[in-house]
Automatic annotation (TrEMBL):
Record-linked NCBIfam families: transpos_IS3
InterPro entries, per the entry: HTH-like_dom (IPR025948), RNaseH-like_sf (IPR012337), Transpos_IS3 (IPR048020), Transposase_IS3/IS150/IS904 (IPR050900)
Name of this protein: IS3 family transposase
Pfam families documented for this protein: HTH_21
Cited SUPFAM superfamilies: Ribonuclease H-like
Domain HTH-like: 47-103
């Protein structure tokens, strides 16, 4: 329930002026809300009809189509509709298209190069500090398709970051 509906429900007992003052809303906003109730109901009904058409197109695509493709399909059927409205309705009914991830190839292995030996022997435990260290490189994506590289070295005994 929103604040305007609360005022509408209790206005006979307490009055609009008092309720709007308590709820910190302008009386003109309440009266505007009440005056446009029919328009909101019509928009909700139109969105419900649109949601049914979106579900049908989404189902036909086996759940793969997202906002751009569903918008194109509906426009091909003669519907004049904005992609933002399609996105809003899809969010409200819980539909989303399949997002394909791009695979980023960050290194190209040399097949002739010798493989690095496994010095830890797959044993990632250490009884004393400063005896075994492991490292890792992580690629953090940035805007524009670039990457930031984060390299870490961890002491296996204390599990603390060494560098």
């Amino acid at each position: 329930m929103n604040r305007f509906q609360f005022v509408a429900d209790h206005q006979r007992r307490y009055g609009v002026k008092r309720l709007c003052a308590i709820l910190n809303i302008a009386r003109s906003s309440f009266y505007y809300w009440r005056r446009t109730a029919g328009d909101r109901a019509a928009r909700q009904a139109a969105d419900a009809r649109l949601a049914a058409r979106i579900r049908a197109v989404h189902r036909e695509s086996d759940g793969t189509y997202g906002v751009p493709r569903i918008t194109a399909e509906l426009r091909d059927d003669g519907e004049r509709i904005n992609h933002k409205r399609i996105a809003r309705v899809m969010r409200s009914i819980g539909l989303a298209g399949v997002r394909l991830r791009r695979r980023h190839r960050t290194t190209v292995a040399d097949p002739a190069a010798a493989k690095a030996p496994d010095l830890v022997g797959r044993d990632f435990t250490a009884s004393e500090p400063n005896t075994k260290y492991v490292g890792d490189i992580t690629y953090l994506p940035l805007d524009g398709g670039k990457f930031l590289y984060l390299a870490t070295v961890i002491d296996l005994a204390s599990r603390r970051l060494a560098g």
